[in-house]
Write a structure and sequence with these properties.
Length: 513
């Protein structure tokens, strides 16, 4: 198997993502994690960009052991000197210098001829080489440059001392097969290439960054430049975790491997997302929330019988939890029964059928079915008994500069009508007090959640409550377009469960004194 070097540029190109700026402390924190991930090279920054960045690169170079530490520099004297000052204390310090080679960049941006750019590239590599034996040269916008001219430039910089030549697809323009052909062409036409590391640096403007990197490896590249979660300039860079896992899962096809510590992949992704503030999309390969989640019944049944039916990677390998079964409208009976078992419910066939039918009804209304929903389904549908108290009437008076007051009327199973009035800190508190006091109980409300089942201001509000009384927790649920009514129904459903086990002492008319 060919060894592929992983050059991580999260702290340099990744930081070029619009809106991202990492301070010294944050860069160090990420660099420590990249070292645990066991990347081969950390590009820590572009020291000429700002004194803060130079300081951060210096801190990374001083502290991090293991990976080589690299700093970026334009083909300019001051850039190269500042880059060297920043990385000189690293175990393996790399200066990465670059100049554009495409006619578009030469004409419009640098205003240099091809000959002048080539001369400047050679000069820059020699300058960097006077500081460190490890010099990488990038021909910016290589994939839109003349291949013949590229070969000339790379041959010249290798002669000048470059130890790595990098082929950046700066604007994400190339396609996978062209990338493979380009690497094969350079392998044939660049003098001295056999003694250098051949690197690629792919951007994701057309969503091809990972595919281009993989095809470059097939063409003969020995290093990939990439970022955690694929962050970077514009649409980002090739995602490290995707390249590494593609090589791992399809090792027999690529005949190439990295030295990445797979166990650290997920943790690194989380850390980078947190510190950069760049959220990972749920369906992102390898590290997205849904990457190992199964919602469809047929898939859930498959993975319950054998994980390999619908998973090509083991989530635990990359430091994630095992497969997640998400219950929703597409789920089937196998996954439903498994989840109930995990919650400690062992239902008969008939009970399971009843609960499953109720679950499907609810799943049609709600996107996410939670464990609390399942508990409620089981307790309401399976262990359901006659309701002892039914809500007949609730009226609340609330607003600002007013003492919230609730009047509640209940109908009891024995035919009695109970009525209570109470005040509270809000309308729900007032209604709950009215009910508890008229029933002569004082349970603790340990949990109250309110959410809308669908969108818009006319949505159904759903309330789930857990009350604690007599050393037991009772769960109740209520839904209504009026959130106060939903809250009262939820409370009453929990109290009915309590009343089925314990005799209550209702007062016919409760009036707060
Ligand atoms: C493809 C890439 O990702 S390259 C890295 C891109 N990253 C960044 O640019 C982030 C950090 N950049 C910065 O902080 C600033 O741009 C600096 C400090 C580098 C330069 O700032 P300024 O001196 O104000 O120049 P500015 O950014 O406006 O313009 C870039 C200058 O560098 C020149 N330049 C660009 N690339 C190179 C290069 N590889 N070698 C030499 N000169 C270059 C441009 O031609 C332009 O020169 P000009 O002023 O003579 O026209
Ligand atoms: C400096 C080079 C490698 C770069 O970031 C690019 O071309 O995208």
């Amino acid at each position: 198997m060919k060894k592929i070097l992983v050059f991580d540029t999260t702290l340099r190109d990744g930081e070029q993502s619009p809106g991202v700026a990492l301070n010294v402390h944050e860069k160090l924190e990420i660099a420590r994690q990249l070292a645990r991930l066991n990347v081969d090279i950390i590009e820590a920054g572009f020291p000429i960009a700002s004194p803060g960045d130079a300081e951060a690169v210096k801190a990374v170079a001083r502290e991090i052991k293991g990976p080589a530490i690299c700093a970026l520099a334009r083909a300019k004297e001051k850039d190269i000197e500042v880059a060297w000052e920043s990385i000189r204390y690293a175990e393996t310090p790399i200066i990465h210098t670059f100049i554009a080679t495409s006619d578009i960049h030469l004409k419009h941006k640098l205003r240099l001829s091809r000959e002048q750019a080539l001369e400047q590239a050679v000069w820059a590599v020699k300058k960097a080489k006077s500081f460190t034996p490890y010099v990488e040269f990038s021909a910016e916008d290589a994939t839109r440059s003349s291949w013949e001219y590229l070969a000339q430039v790379y041959s010249a910089v290798i002669e000048a001392g470059a130890t790595t030549i990098n082929i950046p697809d700066t604007v994400g323009y190339i396609t996978p097969l062209e990338m493979k052909e380009l690497i094969e062409y350079l392998l044939k036409n660049v003098k001295g290439i056999e003694k250098t590391t051949i690197s690629v640096h792919c951007h994701n403007d057309l969503g091809l960054a990972v595919a281009n990197s993989l095809l470059a490896i097939q063409g003969g590249a020995t290093q990939v430049e990439c970022t955690i979660n694929g962050i970077g300039e514009r649409a980002g860079n090739a995602a490290l975790e995707e390249i590494v896992m593609a090589l791992h899962v399809r090792g027999e096809f690529f005949q190439a491997q990295t030295d990445i510590n797979y166990q650290e992949i997920y943790r690194t992704s989380r850390l980078v997302s947190q510190l950069t503030g760049m959220l990972v999309q749920p369906n992102k390969a390898v590290v997205g929330d849904n990457a190992f989640a199964h919602e469809s019944g047929i898939h859930q049944d498959g993975v319950l019988k054998e994980r390999l039916t619908y998973e090509i990677m083991d989530a635990r390998l990359i430091g994630r939890q095992e497969k997640v079964l998400v219950l929703g409208k597409h789920s089937g009976r196998h996954a439903f029964a498994k989840k109930l078992e995990e919650l400690g419910y062992h239902l008969s066939e008939e009970e399971l059928n009843k609960a499953f039918a109720r679950f499907k009804q609810l799943a049609d209304q709600k996107k996410h079915i939670t464990e609390a929903d399942l508990e409620t389904i089981v307790s309401e549908e399976i262990t359901k008994q006659e309701e002892i108290y039914q809500l007949d009437f609730v009226h609340v008076c609330s607003g600002n500069n007013i003492l919230p007051t609730a009047t509640v009327r209940l109908k009891a199973a024995d035919g009695q009508t109970l009525e209570g009035v109470a005040t509270g800190v809000g309308p729900v508190d007032a209604a709950y007090k009215a009910i508890s006091k008229m029933l002569g109980i004082s349970p603790d409300l340990v949990n109250f959640t309110l959410q809308s089942i669908s969108g818009g201001t006319e949505a159904l509000g759903e309330v789930l409550v857990r009350i604690f009384g007599d050393e037991k927790v009772y769960v109740g649920r209520g839904s209504s377009q009026d959130v106060v009514v939903a809250s009262v129904m939820a409370y009453l459903s929990a109290i009915n469960k309590m009343a089925q086990e314990k005799k209550l002492n209702p007062q016919k008319d409760y009036q707060e004194s």
